Amino acid sequence: QVQLVESGGALVQAGGSLRLSCLASGSIFSINVMGWYRQAPGKQRELVAAVTNGGATNYADSVKGRFAISRDNAKNTVSLQMNSLKPEDTAVYYCNARTFAYVNYWGPGTQVTVSS
Length: 116
Hints:
Blueprint: E1 2-7, E2 11-13, E3 18-26, E4 31-39, E5 46-51, E6 57-59, E7 67-72, E8 77-82, E9 91-99, E10 104-106, E11 110-115
Parallel strand pairs: 2-11
Antiparallel strand pairs: 1-3, 3-8, 4-5, 4-9, 5-6, 7-8, 9-10, 9-11
């Protein structure tokens, strides 16, 4: 089992920045990929960014050049630096951990609201 807890969500003006963090605990050794997803009202949950155990990253086209994901395996954390935020970035952001056995774990989510 893996437990995930997010922090850092807030209300911010368009053009501003936020940093989300996620702390993992439990069976840390089983985690391969860690990432961030988001879900806006009335929309499906979508991948924002992910990073593998080896450091390879993947980003949604909508956030490329604005968001940066980083992972600290020593501290069991994954962070998402979000710059140049837009109103369309408003969503609940979820931390995700996928194990080598392709089991997914989710955090409870943190709200990010970008005002225009």
